[in-house]
Amino acid sequence: MIRINKMTRGRFGNKILQYNSLMQLASLLNEEPYCTYWDEGHAIFDLPVFKSAEGLCREEKILTWRECASVSFRDNVKKVHDKFDIILDDPAYMLHNVFFQLTHIDPRKFLPINKNYKRDMPVDKINVGIHFRGTDILGADGNHGREIHRPRYYKDSIDIIESEYDNIKYYVCSDDLNFTSYKETIKYLEQKNCLYEKGNIGNHLADFSTLAGCDILVASSSTFIICAGFLGRTNKKIIHSQEWIEKNLNHLPWHRKQDPDDVRRAQLSFDDFWVSLYNGGNEFYKVWRWV
After folding, report:
1. Where are the domains of the chain?
2. Angle between helices 180-191 and 151-164 (to 10 degrees)
3. pLDDT of 51-85, one tens digit each?
4. Between 20 and 30 A from 25 (CA), which of 65, 106, 149, 261?
5. Helices 12-29/223-230 angle, 10° precision
6. Whether the model pTM is above 0.90
7. What is the DSSP letter of 260?
8. What residues are paired with 2 via a beta bridge?
9. In this structure, which topology does domain 126-290 adopt according to CATH?
10. Please, what's the b/e burial string for 256-265 (b: 16 or more CB within 10 A of its CB; e: otherwise)?
């Protein structure tokens, strides 16, 4: 059995990625998955309520991102699974750093948005979702602003979209309405007389469904928008920041001071998601434009 006994302490996007890792691994190994009840996930997605693992469990062993990042990860998994139940709880960190290694089935199969949240987007529009990170990237937990996307990125993305499409509607989503890039983008949309709608500051699940239903995404660095990219509507055109990708290609440190080696290795694994994406990603998540 492959299990999540406790959802990651990360936010909504990280929880989706942890769940995707569970289901992808279970499929790869033809093993039964188990996930603890997940409030947000069961609210927005049609998820199974897994039968209790009680009485079915063997001794547990956490499978880490390091083991799955290896070229021989299937051998590593088999060695673990021959004797133990595989556990994907923290500190396994089986998130976007293993997305490209594990994802071989469309994640929409495992995470369909349910009828309570699925949004019917206007079919006579090109629907463009714009996502901003704010509060969670400004302090120490956000790597001291390393992941901030400047207003110019959003404005340039809008200019590209406006030059290539007609009849556009924008959906502007953030959890920080005071974030400079958010305010500047709203102002820019108004200056250009663009049709736009603000997201729901009090309901991130509603925002997620809206973004997942868009034709084009102007993305931040957040796993929230990454997951909206590979769920919901298929064949989205996704834009990411060139400035942001260069920080990852160059493996710039996350903090002002050098991190301990074990922390640095973990950071490099998350950088590598972006490197793989820059090199083409896969059929489930790839970039249309770097801006």
Report:
1. 2-109, 126-290
2. 30
3. 776 666 778 889 888 887 766 666 767 666 667 88
4. 261
5. 50
6. yes
7. P
8. 33, 86
9. Rossmann fold (3.40.50)
10. eeeeeeeeee
